[in-house]
Amino acid sequence: MQAFYSDHFVLPLPVGHRFPMPKYRLLRERIESQPGFRLCEAEPASEGELALAHDPGYIAAVVQGSLSAAAQREIGFPWSERMVERSRRSVGATIGAARAALAEGVAANLAGGTHHAGADKGGGYCVFNDAAVAARLMQAEWHRRHPPGTPGLRVAVIDLDVHQGNGTAAIFRDDPTVFTLSLHGAKNFPFRKETSDLDVELPDGCTDEPYLEALEAALAELWRRHAGQAPGLVFYLAGADPHEGDRLGRLKISSAGLAERDRRVFDACRERGIPVAVSMAGGYGHDIAVTVDVQQRTLEEALASWRQWQWNNARHVAPTAA
After folding, report:
1. I want to staple 285 with a disulfide (CB 3.0 to 4.6 A). Which of 68, 78, 180, 290 is the partner?
2. Distances in Å between the alpha carbon of 235 and those of 42, 147, 159, 316?
3. Buried b (16+ CB within 10 A) or exposed e, 226-239
4. Is the CB of residue 1 less than 8 Å from the CB of residue 303?
5. pTM for this one?
6. Alpha-carbon distance 307 to 304, whole Å?
């Protein structure tokens, strides 16, 4: 399974900064030693690709370093050339994962899930919205590969980060070709939420059983609304921050509960023949090793699903005549 990374471009953050950047490097180091993963360094997204989801003026301000102090505070870390490079490569990693998923069934970005970035601004540690850019680019590439009159590529975003994907919801507010589903803490950031196609709000302290019940109901509604035409690609934001050990999550989901969450998403998509590009999204554990454990387990579930895709495809290949 292909897994794309961009952690060589770690941001030089102030002492005491709360954003746990080392988790991406730690996750890659663990995955490097596991059979079945093919690690690929992400290429940076071009300004033209970013413009599929972001205003050109905002892109220019990020690239040229002219973001206001207020805009940098909203993002959560200061501007630097490394910030620009890492943000572009994080989007590039999701683009790579989406292309690989369409070809092979499942692929991953070892970071990504920057769902608080809107068309004209960043926020919540998110500069550019990787899923939004990749979704629009995959739709454009699909259109170029198919003859006129072929139905376009429909996309679903299954966002299970503990924080609502407000930027993604805003970008696709009036786009019927992209369905946004967000399962998140009702009282958590962002405190002014956007409207997704399907929002499911969870109370503080939510535990495994009600969480998985809410997920099952949300997935059932997603499939019901796509009874006529299933999505051709899913972007799955598998946040580790619903975990009971997360500093910012406010939920009480166990490691086993999150693994079951991942398994249900991958199984449901595979059973319907829908490729999945998964990103790690948030995770802010009191013990960063626990966050990395959760994300590693997500990738292991993704690998298991990828292997099942390959086995299913092999079964349907007609034998060659002797």
Report:
1. 290
2. 17, 25, 8, 26
3. eeeeebbbbbbbbb
4. yes
5. 0.94
6. 5
